[in-house]
Amino acid sequence: MIRTIALAYSGGLDTSIIVPWLKERYGARVICIAADVGQGSELDGVRAKAIASGAEECYVEDLRQEFVEKFVWPTLRAGAIYGRKYLLGTSMARPLIARRQVEIARKVGADALAHGCTGKGNDQVRFELTYAAFAPDLPIIAPWREWDIRSREDAIAYAESHRIPITATKEKIYSRDRNIWHMSHEGGVLEQPAAAPPADLFMLTTAPEKAPDEAEEVTIGFVNGTPVAVNGTGLDAVDLLTALNTIGGRHGIGRIDLVEDRLVGMKSRGVYETPGGTLLYSAHSELEQLVLDRRTLAAKDLIAPRYADLVYEGRWWTTEREAYDAFVNTTQERVTGSVTLKLFKGTASVVSRESECALYDERFVTFGDDDVYEQSDAAGFIRLYGLSARVRAIRDQELAAAQRERETKAEQPASLAIA
Fold first, then answer.
1. CATH 3.40.50.620: does it fit domain 4-64+90-172?
2. HEC secondary structure over 90-155
3. Of 326, 330, 345, 385, whose CB is crowded by the most CB atoms within 10 A?
4. How many of the other CB atoms lie within 10 Å of CB of 173?
């Protein structure tokens, strides 16, 4: 018998109606767990709202620092990008939230875990793979896979009938997810791929055409692949990302519109805002290009999409991810330095990059006089480098000559052949 249910709670439409539904359906007490991963004012009054909805208690956990340091930075260092565009903001947060939910569930003696993910989305997989890793003994309740509510309109009607305050309306029915890394927008008019996102959809970024008419430069410093400074000022993880979000958002940086492949097999459309993250990916990639050799870069580029798939699919708590991190950590030992970007109306272009570990050396690449590179050495290198092509060409020539000789003999008159 289920007596206590630990619910992953956001205070949004879905989880708000789940509290009374769980009480009605199971007759159990409901303990809510709300994770602060950088939603800002969205969490204002969330505990009071949960209790007003029928929860016995609501734990509000500040996970921002851990989220950035232990989830965002490793994914950034790996260069992981899903679907050529998506910087994995929602995907990275779920394993952390779900793990903390399990920890509190153990603390309060919960008999079951619950989440508000729909049966069509990716988040149900991310939550439940984490549950499997940390609480395989606890049953899972996923109301969207059980109840009669079939749409967000139904959910709104349920909330209204139970007098549960919500911000979603039938006119503005977007499903949004926000954290310190990004903000996602789905649903409503966005379900039509041919429809442009409404101007009032965006919340973190200025429209590029309305961004400042003067460019702004920002310098990002890294140590071993981890961001540590903005414009020469050392900052902790949360403050650094917050600063870059403000700077990037001001210039309309980080908007993407993506038709993505969900894990469950369907395509969906999402509009994402990741201002600070976009700047960090650009700067980090540029610094790697300066300090890593081409074969290491190529190997890392093979790992990046696998890492992205892993994060997107909720397989964070796996040996696979730990192995990838070990590889990435080795590649990042020399990724120390700074990159300056110029921001202007939605674009971020590289202005300069520098590192004590740079493999670029002007003494070798200059077109002026130098005494460190013997240009005549290139002849021997090219001869060996092209040896296989030359051997094949020589062999082709020999085969062609032999064929011509055979054809010539075949064309000779019989009398000449007898003579």
1. yes
2. HHHHHHHHHHHHHHHHHHHCCCEEECCCCCCCCHHHHHHHHHHHHCCCCCEECHHHCCCCCCHHHH
3. 345
4. 18
Q: Which tens digit of pLDDT belongs to each residue from 313-337?
A: 999 999 999 999 999 999 999 999 9
What CATH code is assigned to 183-292+335-360?
3.90.1260.10
Say which of 16, 36, 123, 126 is annotated catalytic. 123
Spot the catalytic one: 175, 268, 282, 355.
175
94 or 16: which carries more pLDDT confidence?
Answer: 94
Q: What is the pLDDT of residue 346?
A: 98
Please report, for the chain, the start and end positions of each structural domain, with discontinuous segments joined by +.
4-64+90-172, 183-292+335-360, 365-403
**Burial call 25-41: b when 16+ CB within 10 Å, e when fewer:** ebebbbbbbbbbbbbee
Query: Is 123 among the residues known to form the active site?
Result: yes
Residue 61, token pair as written in the block: 């956990």
Q: Active-site residue 14, yes or no?
A: yes
| CA dihedral (124, 127, 130, 135) positive or negative | negative
Q: Do domains 4-64+90-172 and 183-292+335-360 have the same CATH topology?
A: no
Q: How far apart (Å, rounded) are the C-alpha atoms in residues 219 and 259?
A: 32
- pLDDT number for residue 165: 75
- Active-site residue among 29, 47, 64, 94? 94
Question: For the ranges 125-134, 200-209, 215-224, 410-419, which has the lowest average pLDDT?
Answer: 410-419
- Residue 46 · residue 72 · CB < 8 Å: no
Instruction: Name residue, tokens 């798939």.
Output: 309
